[in-house]
Amino acid sequence: MRAQFVLSEIGVGLRRNLTMTFAVIVSVALSLGLFGASLLMRDQVSTMKGYWYDKVNVSIFFCNKNDAETGTRCAKGAATQQQKNDIKAELDRLPIVQNVQYESSDQAYKHYKEQFGDTPVAGLVTPDQLPESFRVKLKDPTKYEVIKSAFSERPGVQEVQDQRDTIEPLFNLLNGMNIAALVVMALMLVVALMLIVNTVRVSAFSRRRETGIMRLVGASSFYIQMPFILEAAIAGLLGAVFACVLIVGGKWVLINNWLATKILVIKFIGWDSVVAVLPLVLLIGLLMPALAAFFALRKYLKV
User: Fold this and answer.
1) For residue 80, which phi and psi values (nearest 5 degrees)?
2) CA distances (Å), 105 to each of 56, 102, 158, 248, in order?
3) Going by fewer Cβ within 10 Å, which terminus of the chain is more open, N or C?
4) DSSP string, 139-158
5) Between the CA atoms of 226, 228, 232 and 235, what dihedral angle is there, to the nearest 10 degrees?
6) How many other CB atoms sit within 10 Å of the CB of residue 149?
7) What are residue 161's DSSP bridge partners?
8) At 203, is the secondary structure helix, strand, or coil?
9) Where located (predicted)?
10) Average pLDDT over residues 11-27
């Protein structure tokens, strides 16, 4: 009998505040959708970092004959074969180095032509202007500073360059977008909480006579509060379900059927990341409104 009464009170409350309940569902769905998307974006950035950092190299560029006129550390002319051999031997002895590949000026020019194709820039450079280099693959890409400090001042070395510098701005942009999504999510969450509290207040005010009678006949506070808490929890859970639909739909449409077909050089997150996020979204959608309603009712159900 008590369960039937609680369920009937929940139905009455949802019907009386249908508009505000719908607003709660929408705001919870949007805020938790952004929350889930921000978690997935964080995973995507981590996946991309692991994928690209594992492929980037540290490049040790050698001085060539054209650098002798610049007045820099290459003022003594092109690097000698002995200098290259010494550096190669030292690199092979370092435990952090996985392998070393030599790239000649002609090979560098070939890569340059592949990058710029038939653009006007491609004709501005000749093979003898591009330096020879060692492409150093590290076991741990974060140890780049070890190579830089050891070889950047060596005779015959023009520059030590980490290819991570090229892709780091992309990761910074993605991290910035992730922070922006979290800020918007936080604002939407505040709006959702305010709507939940106001919905509970209105519902409690409209049923103040019934709750007063229940208090007078000896009903416990928890029994009186239960219909209101469950109303908020149901609205929040519905919003969380819609948020899960948005997350799954975004993964399917935006990533699988669009970005993955357009950008082949990026390893995108899989469904396992999405599945890991969905239970957290559902749990927050269920508990957050229930707790908000519980604390709001502590004041507004005193009779």
Assistant:
1) -85, 165
2) 20, 10, 14, 49
3) N
4) SSGGGHHHHHHHHTTSTTEE
5) 100
6) 10
7) 59
8) helix
9) Cell membrane
10) 71
